[in-house]
Request: fold
Amino acid sequence: MLPYGRQSIDASDIAAVTDALNSDWLTTGPEVERFETAVAARAGVDHAVSVTSGTAALHVAYAAAGIEPGDEVITTPLTFVATAATAALLGAKIVFADVDPATGNLDPSAVAAAVTERTRVVAGVDYAGVPVDAPALRGITSRHDLLLLEDAAHSIGSTLDGAPVGSLADLTTYSFFPTKNLTTTEGGAVVTADAELAARAVSFKNHGLVRDRAMQRYPDEGPWHQEVHAFGLNYRLPDVLCALGTSQLERLDQFVARRAEIKAAYDEALGDLEGVDIPVAPQGAAPAWHLYPLRVPAERRRSIFDSLREQGIGVQVNYIPAYWHPVFEDLGYQRGMCPVAEEYYRREISLPMFPALTDSDVERVIEATRVAVAG
Reply:
């Protein structure tokens, strides 16, 4: 079975991990700082906070934004549930806004209509690697004094009008899961240009510990003393995984280029299929294509999916609308709230997309897809 996503590991990655294992540090050591510095540079901002997963990055980012019970967070339903769940865990009410039918990204006009006096954060998702319409969303958040969070789990390496994803929003979160554009096995990061938001993120991911004597309530307790002023969690990414991430970052441009080649090959070969829509990006966007979200006739999506699996093509569907999950259904959310996102979901199939796909693999996917769609 050809998987829909897979990590790309080489000898340099293995050597980096081995060196970290042979060092004096397995966690909270020099590799963490090295990785965070490299991630911040790639994002075009001053601050990067490494964490244990993309979900942890979202949780940390919402905590840094000061989300509390009663606050509202506007986000897209066309995403993995963590984008909404991590805000809900902090007590926020999730307000789902519909998506752009072409890109699957959050529709700025739907966001504008959803803003209330309780809104605190707008959280867009770079679906498939396509950057959100940050200028339009920034216009909304600036008018209402809100924070813009960009869930860039799919899009490290993407740019918009030449600016890297990571520099477009107040807070940006990355995921480094194995199927993503680079991996630390599990892992993620929060990046920001705002020093105060970064400090809050660092505190929350490290139990809320205060070690700076100037900030402690009881600084004379002893040299061992540390205090917790606000609750946090242990979301620290260890040195071993950070070493892998730094090594992977050195090849990110190669990964992005190969993903673009695969996307172009799929486009050329599948664009003429009746009833099928290939993924698009708006002018000025240069996506690091994490997914290839092909849209097929909704009434035939299941049979096409099954045919591809039977032919050994490990396709996936991304994603069930977040509010369809029973946890949101039990809170009163109902199907039909975001019809564009729901229609996108009903038609979507993710074809294999990862740098190690060979040209023959790509041809195999194309042939199988044409067979499945022809039915």
User: Anything to note?
Assistant: The chain has two domains: 11-249, 252-374. The first helix runs from residue 11 to 21. Residues 212 and 354 are 44 Å apart (CA to CA). The domain at 252-374 is CATH 3.90.1150.10 (Aspartate Aminotransferase, domain 1).
